[in-house]
């Protein structure tokens, strides 16, 4: 795959959505990042796209609501996972995009496979990076989780906006939490750190960190993902989340066509090894296109 050194991404904003865009082809590729990440999650791969691929495809690297440079939800609203499906539909409507190939990482993968199940005509193929199925909870934890979620809301409402004096410490903290290098953390944080009068804060909505009030049960999750007919590839890193290996086994019956590509790296393998992961994704997209 030849590298196009001129394919710089352009920033766009419409209807509350911020995204980065590269390519000028008729085939759309929508990239959905993980929880607390942003569209820069896919930047290392997008920078390696070949001229030939860019002539046939346009990539849309989306900041999900509350993340990156996209608009926060209103003060009285919360971030429910299920609403991200409608957020993606709103984004595609805003830019007049009837269908696309989807690349999802972690939470973005959960969103993508649920969109493929509920609105299959919008999804031409699925490339899932260390994420498959849905997160669910056992019935015995429903009440305690609900109480905890409300208590955390009250705590957050009483907290002032957080400011930091040292930008580099913010980057190092993100690297430690994400278990990746400072270089990868810098790529992610570059789109979410805001500087004002010598101090720093985050552009992401603090409410994103709040625990969910209600999560699906196991039977509900299986039912929602039943009969996914879209060609799907799961990229499974050898040092990724163990839960995704369990999810793969559990949700396998939900997919008519699922291939698994085992690769090197951790949960952010697509940032650690962008060339190798991009090769897998491009091959899957082109195969799905026929």
| Low-confidence parts | none
Largest sheet: 8 strands, mixed
Give Rg in angstroms.
Answer: 19 Å
The largest beta-sheet arranges its strands as: 1-2-4-3-5-6-9-10
- Protein structure class: alpha/beta
Distance between the termini: 19 Å
The helix/strand order is EEEHHEHEHEHHHEEHEHEHH
CATH topology of the domain at 10-137 and 217-289: Rossmann fold
The CATH architecture assignment of the domain at 10-137 and 217-289 turns out to be: 3-Layer(aba) Sandwich
Shape: globular
Helix content: 25-40%
By CATH reckoning, the class of the domain at 10-137 and 217-289 would read: Alpha Beta
Mean pLDDT over all positions: 95
**Total number of helices:** 11
Protein name: Alpha/beta hydrolase
Organism: Pseudoalteromonas obscura
InterPro entries: AB_hydrolase_1, AB_hydrolase_fold, AB_hydrolase_sf
Keywords: Hydrolase
Describe the structure.
- This protein is an alpha/beta fold.
- It has a domain at 10-137 and 217-289: Rossmann fold, CATH 3.40.50.1820.
- The chain is 37% helix and 22% strand.
- The strands form two sheets. An eight-stranded mixed sheet has the order 1-2-4-3-5-6-9-10, with helices on both faces.
- β9, α9 and β10 form a beta-alpha-beta unit.
- α6 crosses α7.
- The protein is globular and about 55 Å long.
- The protein starts with 9 loop residues before the first strand and ends with a helix.
- The model has no long low-confidence stretch (mean pLDDT 95).
């Amino acid at each position: 795959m030849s590298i196009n050194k001129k394919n710089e991404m352009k920033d766009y904003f419409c209807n509350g959505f911020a995204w980065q865009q590269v390519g000028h082809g008729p085939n759309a590729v929508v990239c959905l990042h993980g929880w607390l990440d942003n569209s820069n999650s896919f930047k290392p791969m997008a920078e390696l796209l070949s001229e030939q691929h860019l002539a046939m495809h346009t990539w849309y690297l989306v900041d999900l609501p509350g993340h990156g440079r996209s608009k926060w939800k209103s003060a009285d609203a919360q971030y429910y996972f299920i609403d991200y499906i409608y957020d993606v539909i709103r984004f595609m409507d805003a830019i007049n995009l009837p269908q696309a190939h989807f690349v999802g990482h972690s939470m973005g993968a959960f969103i993508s496979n649920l969109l493929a199940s509920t609105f299959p005509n919008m999804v031409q193929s699925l490339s899932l990076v260390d994420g498959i199925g849905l997160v669910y909870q056992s019935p015995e934890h429903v009440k305690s989780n609900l109480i905890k979620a409300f208590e955390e809301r009250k705590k957050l409402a009483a907290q002032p906006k957080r400011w930091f004096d040292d930008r580099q410490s913010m980057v190092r903290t993100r690297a430690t939490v994400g278990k990746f290098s400072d270089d990868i953390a810098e790529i992610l944080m570059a789109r979410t750190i805001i500087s004002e009068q010598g101090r720093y804060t985050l552009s992401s909505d603090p409410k994103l960190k709040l625990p969910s009030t209600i999560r699906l049960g196991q039977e509900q999750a299986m039912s929602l993902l039943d009969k996914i007919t879209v060609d799907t590839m799961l990229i499974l890193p050898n040092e990724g989340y163990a839960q995704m290996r369990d999810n793969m086994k559990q949700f396998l019956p939900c997919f008519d066509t699922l291939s698994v590509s085992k690769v090197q790296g951790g949960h952010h393998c697509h940032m650690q090894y962008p060339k190798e992961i991009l090769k897998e994704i491009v091959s899957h997209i082109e195969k799905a296109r026929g």
